[in-house]
Design goal:
Blueprint: E1 4-5, H1 10-14, E2 25-27, E3 30-32, E4 39-44, E5 49-55, H2 59-74, H3 83-99, H4 101-112, H5 116-135, E6 145-147, E7 152-160, E8 163-167, H6 173-187, E9 190-194, H7 201-213, E10 220-222, H8 227-235, E11 242-246, H9 249-262, E12 266-270, E13 276-279, H10 285-297, E14 309-313, H11 317-328, E15 332-333, H12 349-365, E16 368-371, E17 375-376, E18 382-383, E19 386-389, H13 396-399, E20 406-412, H14 415-423, E21 430-434, H15 438-447, E22 452-455, E23 474-475, H16 480-485, E24 488-496
Parallel strand pairs: 1-15, 8-9, 8-11, 9-10, 11-12, 13-14, 13-21, 14-20, 19-20, 21-22
Antiparallel strand pairs: 2-3, 4-5, 6-7, 7-24, 12-23, 16-19, 17-18
Helix pairs in contact: 2-8, 3-5, 3-6, 3-7, 4-5, 5-6, 10-11
The structure holds 1,4-dihydronicotinamide adenine dinucleotide and magnesium ion.
The site of magnesium ion (MG) has 3 residues, from loops.
């Protein structure tokens, strides 16, 4: 076996999985059953067993949530508050998140197989941090005074775009929720969110905390349910002014089409990636292998910006591959509640089977399997971290987003070749460069068509760093002040001056 597996029975010893408190839809400040009364099962990826049933929202429920959000936007206090009041309530919301960090991290761990310790130390505090970042902006949203060429003057108002719909994925249930909700709240929008059907629980807990913080009813609504029903109803809703989606390119196209066919609502899409990490001969091998492991295996490879194509220059290729195998073999696969675990189970059976089928493709296509390549454990959705070398650009594993713990190594000779091959993909989300040469770093970073380029680091995110796609990885930016712009629109107000012919 490529990696060690711990016994998976640590949960009782280390952490008691909390009782699931919130399983209903959250509409207009209340937890309610779905109109149909239907529920869906949410599965523990450690075992494949059902552990909770959650209300299954559909079009009728989205209608009710949009009605509440519309009312809260058109007549409620939220968009009319002075920015400092929105800031105050968002800060309170952030404090409540931190107070509940353990329970929230446990929900994402049991729902999505995410590491509990990582959630508690990183995802949950960063959610509070994201809220605070945008809270700080809520009272600094202002336009410009315009100097006109004729006897008129003007100014711009930055107004909230209206009711924002958000469709989020399962790989970062907490981070994705706050990456989208926080700038929208700061802007004064009201919101209908649909978390992924695989990971609905933390979003419902966040709705509860929003209410506790004093965010007015109708401002933040959460509809749990499936994509083709609840998700599609958001994308096509005539009373939603903007939709922000993160997920597959395939569904991104459907969302954009639905937005166009309904009311031309504004669209932000953050879609997949097949991100190159380019390692040059002069790289520090210790650092480069470390970045490759982190970039490819973090969150079990279920990361849109994962370094899923690793280009290594020929001079260090063999040494790099050898060291990488040594490092990857130290990965501990196991129960996400166990602090010694590095890699938990894949999110669900679909994703697990999809990853295993790509691994089989890789073997059939003639890539060399250096380590891993099999499921592990007696139950649940665990997969050995896997490395393929001698990968060719034409192989499926080099072209498709696998979204799992699978590393592909590709050999290159020259800087020009690396740039050309790195760009030879329909995606353009992220890229990494490892080199000590400033010229190489500058040339490559400016030549790669991707929304974020990391030099001698990888997955280096911060609240202030906007990210999003070039090409078929989507458009619009999450994070940073650019994300706030996604929830604002500009109104221009013009008045005549004293000597104007208009008077
Ligand atoms: P998906 O794109 O189907 O799901 C993402 C979200 O979209 C979920 O909330 C889902 O309920 C919703 N959705 C699905 N169909 C919809 C529709 N017709 N209208 C509106 N909303 C809809 O992604 P899925 O099937 O869970 O994963 C498939 C692949 O997509 C993954 O293997 C991965 O390659 C990619 N993916 C990329 C993500 C990213 O961060 N960019 C996140 C999740 C998946
Ligand atoms: Mg899907």
């Amino acid at each position: 076996m490529a990696a060690t597996q711990n016994n998976g029975n640590m949960k009782e010893a280390l952490f008691k999985v909390p009782d699931i408190k919130f399983t209903k839809l959250f509409i207009n400040g209340e937890f309610v059953d779905s109109v149909s009364g239907k529920k869906f099962e949410t599965i523990d990826p450690r075992t494949g067993e059902v552990f909770a049933k959650v209300a299954e929202g559909d079009k009728e429920d989205v209608d009710l949530a949009v009605k509440a959000a519309r009312e809260a936007f058109d007549h409620g206090p939220w968009p009319r508050f002075p920015g400092c009041e929105r800031r105050r309530l968002m800060m309170k919301f952030a404090d409540l998140i931190e107070e509940n960090a353990e329970e929230l991290a446990a929900l994402d761990a049991i729902d999505g197989g995410k590491l509990y310790g990582m959630g508690k130390a990183l995802d949950i505090p960063a959610a509070a941090g994201t809220l605070r970042y945008y809270a700080g902006a809520a009272d600094k949203i202002h336009g410009e005074t315009l100097k006109m060429s004729r006897s008129i003057q003007g100014y711009t108002l930055r107004e909230p775009v209206g009711v924002a719909g958000m469709i989020i994925p399962w790989n970062f249930p907490t981070s994705m929720f706050f990456t989208k909700v926080s700038p929208a709240l700061a802007a004064g929008c009201t919101i209908v969110v649909k978390p992924a059907e695989q990971t609905p629980l933390s979003a419902l807990f966040y709705a509860h905390l929003a209410k506790k913080a004093g965010i007015p009813d109708g401002v933040l609504n959460v509809i749990t349910g499936f994509g083709p029903t609840a998700g599609a109803a958001i994308a096509s809703h005539i009373d939603i002014d903007k939709v922000s989606f993160t997920g597959s390119t395939e569904v991104g196209k459907l969302v954009m089409k639905a937005a166009a066919d309904s009311n031309l609502k504004q669209v932000t899409l953050e879609l997949g990636g097949k991100n190159p990490l380019i390692i040059f001969d002069d790289a520090d091998i210790e650092m480069a292998t470390g970045l490759a492991v982190f970039g490819s295996l973090y969150n079990k490879g279920e990361v849109c910006v994962a370094s899923s194509r690793i280009f290594v220059q020929e001079g260090i290729y063999d040494e790099f591959a050898k060291k990488l195998v040594e490092k990857v073999k130290m990965t501990v696969v196991g129960d996400p509640f166990d602090p010694s675990t590095h890699q938990g189970p894949q999110v669900d059976k679909n994703q697990y089977e999809k990853i295993l089928s790509y691994i089989e493709h890789g073997k059939r296509e003639g890539a060399t399997l250096l380590t891993g390549g099999k499921p592990c454990g007696e139950k649940g959705y665990y997969i050995e971290p896997t490395i393929f070398s001698d990968v060719k650009d034409s192989m499926l594993i080099a072209k498709d987003e696998i979204f799992g713990p699978v590393i592909s190594l590709l050999k290159f000779k020259t800087i020009e070749e690396a740039i050309q091959r790195a760009n030879a993909t329909k995606y353009g989300l992220a890229a990494g460069i490892v080199t000590k040469d400033l010229n190489t770093a500058n040339t490559v970073s400016r030549s790669i068509r991707a929304g974020v380029v990391w030099i001698n680091c990888y997955l280096a995110f911060d609240y202030d760093i906007p990210y999003g796609g070039y090409k078929m990885s989507g458009f619009g930016r999450d994070s940073g002040m650019e994300a706030l712009d996604q929830y604002l629109q500009t109104k221009c107000v013009v008045t005549p001056l004293y000597d104007s012919p208009w008077l």
